[in-house]
Amino acid sequence: MLLKIGQLAKQTGLTVRTLHHYDAIGLLRPSGRAENGYRQYNRNDVARLHQIQALRRLGLSLEEAGALLAGENADIGAIVAQQIAQLNSQIENATLLRDRLQRLQEDFVTAAEPDLQEWLTTLELMAIFDKHLTPEETARWRTHAQASRADEGRAWKALAEHIHGLIRAKVPPESEQAQDSARRWMALVDPHLKRSPQLMLKMDALYRDQPDLQAAAGMDHLLFEYVGEAAAHYRLALYARHLTPAQLEGMHERFLRHPNGLWVALCRDLGALMDTGAAPADSAVQALCLRWRQLFAECYGSDPEVKARILHAQANDPQLVLGSVWDTPLRAYLDAGLAHLEAQEASARETSHV
User: Fold this and answer.
1) Are 10 and 4 in contact (CB under 8 A)?
2) Contact 43/8 with Cβ under 8 angstroms?
3) Predicted structure pTM score
């Protein structure tokens, strides 16, 4: 039995135009022609068309389907592996979209008066993160967000608006108001920072460099600089409880010249080595220990008593721990590296005196 092109199109759910295209590219040519020139398809043609449709449902292009059916460089295993990878990607994207919708539903739909602007801002932020973060970083950030309070986004927005108000009112960063705002800022940052310093550094860079992100989140360079200065004054005031006035005066200007980002970057690099299992005596770890010692001296000076007091304060004052990247395992790893460095230096000094 031979089928005309219209009959075949109706049977398979395709359009006549599609079948014409298949004929033109050599993918499915009718086996016969009627006297009037109309295409006629036999049983084998219909079977081939069903094979083409099956391959298209797997996601193959027309070119790939044609090559596979012709047996031309057709690696079936590779094709199947490619389709599995594509499906995994689609599943991951669908899961991400579902999670986002669930979070939006939890955050806004249950509210008495859902705010359309907050919906749009959240969606805009998600689009920006997707553009600049790797899939792994996006997944990690999503995990962070899920572990946070549902109203954290609104807390960030309210705090950013409050700080902009301080800036407009020309309230100095060293004021109590500014320092309290910095403390609240660090309290919001702290959980994310401790989970992943590397991701937080990248997020910080994004917020500083992307105007669209700044506009959507209400944060800009001016805000970040102001918070950084206020946070430095806040931490300096905390150190005043652990140092003498003379010791504090000696490190005051030096401390304010070194932003916390330098410590976060050092923590990120050291943590990455710790995660790989590098020993404290490893040359890369030792290089970071030297960097830590130099940065510490630049921030706090070289007085041994001041150093001892600062380290004790950082380990025991809960307010100084807030916003700090040095959790217990990383601090122990650093201490082991510093101990090895000091032992090597002591041995070198002994050798030089022999």
Assistant:
1) no
2) no
3) 0.58
